[in-house]
Design a protein that fits this description.
This protein is an alpha/beta fold and 375 residues long. Helix content is 38%, strand content 16%. Helix 12 packs parallel to helix 14 (363-374). The protein is globular and about 55 Å long. The structure holds pyridoxal-5'-phosphate (PLP).
Length: 375
């Protein structure tokens, strides 16, 4: 194993959202999608240097040129794609960014398409903007996007936007390039902008599998807003910084106009942490992927040994999506909590008979989770 990832940090003193839910109870939390790993040493050092300097006044993100350069270099390293700096738009988190995008692109009463199952703030985004939420599920043994349903929804006159989560949260599925191209063609033909939440795209666990960013496809270049972040990958989500890749100048202008005055600038700590992680965290990143792969394989094998539980191996993310219908329990969450395990309830993702376990934790903690589920 790897000492960087075996170390138990003890997060309660940091007011970790994940740990506060079960504070004072003997329940191991494995719900919120952040990791239990210390961010890489160069990131910690950069944050220390910044605070030691002492001046934490305004920093206008577009003037922090090394930040955009770090994103450009990272995208080249990860996807072999070279983009110009003006495509990078700093955002104060992916959730605010997809909400701002909805605000930029839609009028109340119109339709917003989302695929299911999905991350709860994506499922509920339509409510924030008085839109009609139209869901598209997955079909067939391959669990592909339901293109028939997409055709119906995207073809509506009142449909201007769709939010996609790729790789998918909660099931860790990576959308195939051909499917994304087909979706892109449909969006293009219908004047729909794809809001592509790719926050988990650096966490591809399946060897040989490649993530295709929306902005990298001809079919989507001019009608997509790709949302990315170092938050999950480098465990700096609490710093509230992410970025959008918006190739089309008109869309960029609309995004910025909708953000103006309601969205804070991306903050200095998060910007510096993101740039440092992308520039100096690559070795740590590769080692983390190996650790996560081993955790995934251990957890999935163990869960499938437990009567009533079934879990497919996620291609990406550090989240295991578990079908608990075999337990015969109406309230799956209580089944876990009684055993001292606190997953994300499947009902929050639109699937009450499922639970989601975050396995980005020291192996010892994962072993405790497995032992408790086995009891
Ligand atoms: C798909 C997805 N999008 C967005 C977020 C949150 O992004 P942020 O913290 O940058 O708002 C999460 C966190 O779990 C997520 O899983």
């Amino acid at each position: 194993m790897d000492p960087d990832f075996d170390k138990v940090l003890g997060r309660s003193p940091n007011y970790s959202f994940k740990w506060r839910r079960y504070h004072g109870r003997d329940i191991v939390p494995c719900w919120v999608a952040d990791s239990e790993f210390a961010t890489p040493a160069p990131v910690r050092q950069a944050l220390t240097d910044l605070s030691q300097h002492g001046a934490l006044g305004y920093l206008y993100p577009d003037q922090y040129e090394q930040g955009a350069q770090a994103v450009i270099d990272w995208l080249q390293y990860r996807h072999g794609l070279k983009i110009p700096p003006e495509w990078v738009v700093w955002t104060p988190g992916v959730v605010p960014a997809f909400n701002i995008t909805c605000r930029a692109l839609t009028e109340p009463g119109q339709a917003l398409v989302v695929q299911t199952p999905n991350y709860p703030p994506i499922l509920s985004a339509h409510q924030n903007h008085q839109l009609q939420g139209l869901q598209v599920g997955l079909v067939g043994a391959e669990q592909q996007l339901d293109f028939e349903r997409l055709e119906q929804h995207l073809g509506r006159d009142d449909c201007r936007a769709m939010i996609l989560c790729n790789p998918m949260n909660p099931n860790g599925k990576v959308i195939a390039k051909a499917d994304l191209q087909r979706l892109g063609q449909m969006c293009e033909a219908n004047g729909v902008v794809l809001i592509s939440d790719e926050i988990h795209s650096d966490l591809i666990l399946e060897p040989g599998l490649v993530h295709t960013p929306a902005f990298g496809l001809d079919e989507l270049r001019d009608n997509s807003i790709t949302l990315m972040s170092a938050g999950k990958t480098f465990n700096i989500a609490g710093l509230g910084v992410s970025f959008a890749i918006i190739p089309n100048a008109g869309l960029r202008k609309r995004y910025k106009a909708a953000a103006n005055g309601v969205s804070p600038w991306a903050n200095m700590l998060g910007l510096v942490a993101t740039a440092t992680a992308f520039n100096d965290g690559r070795d740590w990143y590769r080692r983390q992927l190996n650790y996560l792969r081993a955790n995934r394989d251990y957890l999935i094998a163990a869960l499938n040994q437990i009567g009533g539980l079934k879990a497919a191996s996620p291609e990406a993310t550090y989240l295991a999506w578990i079908d608990c219908s075999g337990l015969g329990q109406e309230d799956v969450q209580t089944w876990f909590e009684r055993r001292g395990v606190g997953p994300s309830p499947g009902r929050d993702f639109g699937a009450p008979q499922f639970a989601r376990i975050n396995f980005a934790c020291p192996r010892r903690q994962l072993e405790t989770i497995v032992a408790r589920c086995s009891n």
